[in-house]
Amino acid sequence: MNLFINFVYVISAALFIVGLKMLGSPATARRGNQLSALGMFIAIVVTLLAAGLDYKWIILGIILGSAVGAYAAFKVQMTEMPEMVALFNGFGGLASLLLAWSEYHQQIETSLFIAIVTFLSALIGGVTFSGSMVAFGKLSGKITQKPVLFKGQHMVNGAILAAVLLAALIFCLNPGSGFGYFLFILIVLVAIGFGVTSTIPIGGADMPVVIALLNSYSGLAACAAGFVISNKLLIVAGALVGASGIILTNIMCKAMNRSLANVLFSGFGSGVAAKSGDAAAQGEVRPASAEDVYYMLESADSVVFVPGYGLAVAQAQHVVRELGELLEKNDTQVSYAIHPVAGRMPGHMNVLLAEANVPYDQLIEMDDINLRMDSVDVCVVIGANDVVNPAALNDASSPIYGMPIIETHRARTVIVLKRSMNPGFAGIENALFFNDNTRMYFGDAKESIQALVAQFKSS
Amino acid sequence: MEAVYLTFVFMLAIFLGFELISKVPSTLHTPLMSGSNAISGITLIGAMASLQTDAHGFAALLGTLAVAFAAVNVVGGYLVTDRMLEMFKKKDKTEGGGK
Q: Which of A74, A99, A119, A351 could potentially form a cystine with B66 if both were Cys, beta carbons 3.0 to 4.6 Å apart?
């Protein structure tokens, strides 16, 4: 029977691999996800065939978990997607931690190798869990999105890490004693604490990196748990997820022109940065009314929308699409320029605009839109700030210097929708707002766009 | 030897993962993340297998909790990914039909 189960696991692993491959292209992505789900399903079913299982607990756990998961999946708003992904990540990490703990609890006399991987499961699982909970709190606004910093933070984190490694060393050499068990509990608690202290200094706009990284951790935690129970399917699936998370993390870091270490440890945007970079941007702001903006859009041949996190906050994706359609009827070429780190998770803006039924051939990646920016009549920046800040190109003293941006300032006219003149997340003044070809259209993004839609309809 | 063998499997899977994912358009970053996140819920089958009839008390509690959390991860992850990808799909069709 065990042989059969393991053969079916091979099929599951193959389905995961093909499924992930198909997730790489819009045309096949949905099928890919379904194949991967099928792989998971047959793995679950075949696992139930193993001898000596205690079904009542398994079924209880599956029913409870599936109900919660399904409810959450159907209920969640697309704007809340980042925190949802963070939450699921965290649960995956927690499950791996609990599994390793349960295995260890049932057999505390283990080999050195098993002790090491048990420790790794507990550590990675614990950090994934609490780190994801902090990310969830930040993304859902339950705790501040600002980096939380205190003096000697790196020292504290370093000390925690050193302590956990020391505890791990003693634990791995002697897991089968009461003291070993005590150390294991200590490791679990410290791992959970470390997840909090290492995530809390990271600010809201850096969340795309953090979520991608936690995604990778959740895979590695499953992988470590796979080593604990010698299950190859856990190892393969976990490693695939770990690798994909690392790739995404890398893409996000590149899009901000910062190293992973810089994102994790610098406390970027904590207000210290606010003082620098004010050298460039000063001057007069030119506000515009809904009517002004309407005339600019009405006479434009090409309009490019540049959405940012503010679009998600204002839930303005549907009205933007409506405005886009009205513009198209008016024979204006409409496209949407998406910065890779716009929003709070990789691909955040794409999901929101897809929800609003914006055709995805209108979504243009940063490098492509920059090529033809000079010929764009009007750029409408909606709730984006740092990703369109020209200081990244021409102000070497700016904290975001070197970050690739959507070069809206090269368009003939730029309309910036903004609540107020508050600087963006990084706390940096944006020279774009003071440019001669920029008009500021103040107000809530959704209401502002609705006003434009009304203008178009009444004309 | 078992440890070496498992590490070997791990090493190959990591490299395979890098090859598989290296070229994903940014449109699909979120579905890729939530879809791969659902796969990391594979811990579920390990947790199920750990719930042997001779696991009592605290061990059974830990195992059951592991099953429950992993199930949230698996079921929620796949469903929400499918929901997202459906939107990508649907719009594609209406576009094709409209032109």
A: A99
Is the pLDDT score of A275 beyond 50? Answer: no
ipTM of this predicted structure: 0.91
Number of domains in chain B: 1
> By the 8 A CB rule, do A269 and A258 touch?
no
C-alpha–C-alpha distance, residues A369 and A349, integer Å:
16
Chain B nearest CA to A173, separation (Å): 17
> Is any Cβ of chain A less than 8 angstroms from the Cβ of B93?
no
What does pTM read for this prediction? 0.86
Assess if residue B8 is contained within a domain: no
B92 part of contact set with chain A, CB < 8 Å: yes
Confidence category of residue A424, pLDDT binned at 50, 70, 90: low
pLDDT band at B94; cut points 50, 70, 90: very low
- DSSP code for A24: T
Report residue A335: phi and psi, to 5°.
-145, 170
In this complex, the residue of B9, B74, B88 whose CB is nearest that of residue A26 is: B88
Q: In the predicted model, is pLDDT for residue A407 greater than 80?
A: yes
DSSP letter assigned to residue B52: B
The verdict on residue B20 lying in a domain is no
Q: Considering only residues 50 to 89 of chain B, which have any Cβ-Cβ distance to chain A shorter than 8 Å? A: 50-55, 58-60, 62-89
Residue A234 burial by Cβ neighbours in a 10 Å radius (0-12, 13-18, 19+): buried
Domain span at residue B39 reads 26-98
- Rounded to the nearest angstrom, the minimum Cα separation between B44 and chain A is 8
Measured distance CA(A168)–CA(A180) in Å, rounded:
9
Domain-embedded: residue B55: yes
- What is the predicted pLDDT for the residue at A272? 43
Q: What is the 3-state secondary structure (H, E, C) of B36-62?
A: HHHHHCCHHHHHHHHCECCCCHHHHHH
SS3 A202: coil
Flag whether B37 is in a domain: yes
Q: Check B73 against A61: CB less than 8 A apart.
A: no
Q: How far apart are CA A164 and CA A411, in angstroms?
A: 53
Token code pair at residue A155: 């020292």
Residues of A with catalytic roles = 386
